[in-house]
Amino acid sequence: MFERYEGGEKALLVHVFFPQESDEEDLREFEVLVSSAQIDILSVLTTSRKAPHAKYFVGLGKAQEIADAVKEHSASVILFNHSLSPAQERNLEKLCECRVVDRTGLILDIFAQRARTHEGKLQVELAQLRHLSTRLVRGWTHLERQKGGIGLRGPGETQLETDRRLLRNRIQLILGRLEKVEKQRDQGRQSRAKADIPTISLVGYTNAGKSTLFNAITDANVYAADQLFATLDPTLRRIQVDDVGEVVLADTVGFIRHLPHDLIAAFKATLQETREAELLLHVIDAADPNLNDNIHAVHEVLAEIEAFDIPSLMVMNKIDLLENFEPRIDRDDEGKPIRVWLSAQNKQGIELLFVALKELLARQIKVCQLILPAHLARLRSRFYQLNAVESEIIDEDGSFNLQIRIPMVEWNRLCKQEHDLVYLVKDTQTH
What we know:
The chain is α/β, with parallel strands linked by helices.
């Protein structure tokens, strides 16, 4: 139905400078975005305006200049670093005789290239269909109302109306499938809540190093690359934090300035992991000269998905790109960790991150001395799995004299499973 551009094509980039925006960084980021889509940049055309032109977004003279540049460079697509209305896209395509794709369309296509799981592909398709539903006229301007006569009588609607109906049906089908995925995620979250297992969600600007940090912490093998939107599909892993016990760590999609609303709506189930987290790790590229703008962009998206009020810890990543910079923890006036400086790539400062997590998530700790008979060796093994054994002495009768330090949550869970455990405690304290 639609001709979509594919990676490897040649494009003209168009950017309009507006007085109220910091556009220089936007333009550089857009060029990186285009390169991420494996598209060759032939030329970058810029102009300044106080407000977008109603017909072409750019002025009539600049629109003609773009059309001439298309012929001169034999470009196959024009990429706008702005959101265009369907009418503006059609008018530009008619004038330039070339495909026109706006910023939202480009991001959606990058997402389509990167989605790996069934859920991710459904989410991207939903976002694409919602974006394209307003642009159907462009695909069918050559068709007229269906004619009468033998073999030509139809349902009495134009091909455009037929396609809109089919599109609505497809959107409803995908929404139904995503609803099932969301229910599965909800069940997982409810199970973790019942087991009192906290969730930490990694958030941050795209290409800040979230997946590299995730791999460094969990020894997972999540795809990580120096490109925008390397991660689309959320990944969850369990980790052990001293005095806290098991914690679930979630790696999520990166944010970007002007993230399309269709994408935020489509990735609702994925972003729910962020909304329901107990703590957000806001990963920041410490070497990026525009880190303040990136932080602001992330805060905007967090506010949009109603996750702005969740406690967060800033993780200043990539300190290996800074001169003579050592890992450290920054604290507020009360001594509470607010920033951790580290390098996920070189695994410098990871232990400091665990110290900060321990302080922010620590709950009541039970410290006690246990005497386990030899036939309860399996229970001794369980304590070792939980990293709860501080010291051990094996008595002459084969019993195990253990000094235990364990989160109260884990202790209560064990007591439910082993009713005799409370009678084996010799000396205890809680703090």
